[in-house]
Amino acid sequence: MISAALSLQVERPRRLRDALALMREAAEHGHPLTPLAGGTDLYVGINAGAPMPKNYVDLWGIEELRGIERNGRTLVFGALTTYSECIESRAVHKLLPILVAAAREIGGLQIQNRGTLGGNIGNGSPAADAVPVLLAAGATVVLASRTHGERAVPLERYYTGYRQTVRRADELIVRIEVEVPKGKQVFRKVGTRAAQAISKVVMAAVGPRVAFGSVAPTVVRAHQLQAYLEAGGADPEEARRLACADLKPIDDVRSTAHYRLTVAGNLAAELVRAR
Ligand SMILES: Cc1cc2nc3c(=O)[nH]c(=O)nc-3n(C[C@H](O)[C@H](O)[C@H](O)COP(=O)(O)OP(=O)(O)OC[C@H]3O[C@@H](n4cnc5c(N)ncnc54)[C@H](O)[C@@H]3O)c2cc1C
């Protein structure tokens, strides 16, 4: 890893406006910078010798991207908010306890201290554990660029395909805003073991809003299941059928499509039984 890391070019701005200026300049020259937050996804790729970008902007020193604020039922997370900060936050415990539950199951302490919400969203993995929680809670991703200022994109519209997002080359995720709807919250992660494992299936629910990870090219909302629950539906088998109708899992090294669909259906049925 040391030799791979030595060949990288890394800019280390201390202010957001400087980071955005660097992003703009690089994008204009056709060599966009890759944002680097905690590095817990990026370093894995670099260490494994995967084809990786060479030019980075390290965001870790930018204080403006840190912190969790609460305003009524709204939580605002700086993009650099770590899992440990979510676990320690009274506001998150109060309003979005399933984010605490998800954070506790992400990696070990080292990963929880470095891994960020901005990185979990930015990585675009369908197996990202915080993303279903934020999606079920109706989060908005705020992007900023030096040229155009800020724009808010509902997380539901942030992904356009497998690891594809609407973020432009000169933009950074600066914060995530969530006006948490009322309703029972549920988080379930099914992996090979209890911790330090990437999900085979993950489900998050806030009231009737249900999202699944690891069962489609992106994290997805279960819209048909939501409509059924909103109409008062209470049959676990129908919930199972409707949840699966919105999912398109694949076979990969961690699991099979059949297993994932079966487990997702079981989680949906269990959700209805527990209501
Ligand atoms: C041992 C281990 C265990 C793990 N376990 C889990 C797990 O259980 N569940 C899980 O979901 N993940 C897990 N991960 C993955 C990782 O820790 C998380 O996805 C984490 O949230 C990534 O955050 P980061 O800040 O480290 O991202 P980085 O590695 O810095 O970046 C990840 C991606 O996001 C982009 N990015 C980062 N910040 C921004 C920003 N502000 N604006 C735009 N783009 C940005 C980067 O360019 C990059 O593409 C694990 C990783 C390891 C190494």
Which tags fit this structure?
3 domains, 12 helices, binds flavin-adenine dinucleotide, Enolase-like, domain 1, Uridine Diphospho-n-acetylenolpyruvylglucosamine Reductase, domain 2, five-stranded antiparallel β-sheet, 14 strands, Uridine Diphospho-n-acetylenolpyruvylglucosamine Reductase, domain 3, 275 residues, alpha+beta
What does this protein look like?
The protein has 275 residues and is α+β, with helices and mostly antiparallel strands. It folds into three domains: 2-58, 2-Layer Sandwich (Uridine Diphospho-n-acetylenolpyruvylglucosamine Reductase, domain 2), CATH 3.30.43; 64-179, Uridine Diphospho-n-acetylenolpyruvylglucosamine Reductase, domain 3, CATH 3.30.465; 185-273, CO dehydrogenase flavoprotein, C-terminal domain (Enolase-like, domain 1), CATH 3.30.390.50. The protein contains twelve helices and 14 strands. It has helices at residues 2-6, 16-28, 42-47, 83-88, 90-95, 97-104, 109-114, 117-123, 130-136, 223-230, 236-245, 257-273, and strands at 9-11, 34-36, 55-58, 68-71, 74-78, 140-145, 149-154, 159-161, 164-165, 172-179, 185-190, 201-206, 209-213, 220-221. Strands 4-5-10-6-7 form a five-stranded antiparallel beta sheet. Strand 2, helix 3 and strand 3 (55-58) form a beta-alpha-beta unit. Helix 10 (223-230) runs antiparallel to helix 11 (236-245) and helix 11 packs across helix 12. The chain is globular. The termini are far apart. The model has no long low-confidence stretch (mean pLDDT 94).
